[in-house]
Amino acid sequence: xxxxxxxxxxxxxxxxxxxxxxxxxxxxxxxxxxxxxxxxxxxxxxxxxxxxxxxxxxxxxxxxxxxxxxxxxxxxxxxxxxxxxxxxxxxxxxxxxxxxxxxxxxxxxxxxxxxxxxxxxxxxxxxxxxxxxxxxxxxxxxxxxxxxxxxxxxxxxxxxxxxxxxxxxxxxxxxxxxxxxxxxxxxxxxxxxxxxxxxxxxxxxxxxxxxxxxxxxxxxxxxxxxxxxxxxxxxxxxxxxxxxxxxxxxxxxxxxxxxxxx
Length: 262
Description:
- The chain is mostly helical.
- The protein has helices at residues 2-7, 10-35, 46-95, 101-125, 133-147, 156-179, 187-205, 212-237, 249-252.
């Protein structure tokens, strides 16, 4: 299932989820007509059923909306964090220009090696919320390179302190990026959304409509709406895998800016 999800495009995933949701929705309606005629609302109670159905739909619509907003905010936060991390790494590279040639070349080489390893090794591992020890080791070596060096004169002290601050910020951003690789919604939330969808579809299938054709059209529209919601939840729930995954494109561009690649 995960292999299929990671190899589908955005349009393909949307069509698949909407198609499945519509099929389940219309299937539940057909089953209610075929096997559960006694559970259907009578004509004299149809109005009450529609009132209760509207209340159930409103409740779950609010729940779905809140979950989608929270899911999207987490996705947007991680996307902005990657951009910030790229800017911090670029600032580190530029600030190294003010240090002596030996330290500058060595520091920029380690920084370039770190970025290249994050892009090629660590980024794929983040799909499972894992970290790459090699990337962390390169960041530690760069921190040690700048932290152990005694500044020559008072002019180098502020530059060294700024570099250490940027390194600490890069470390925090990396930690946040790795933790964000795991799905945002946990299993109980998905179970609650699934049960809510089943209740909504099942209740709407038992309503009494003057025309079966109209009932099937409305049930199909409800299934389409649920499919769209599921699509949005899946796209934003796993920020680093799937068709809507955050890519390392911004990081890939960093070594092209005259960086020293070892």
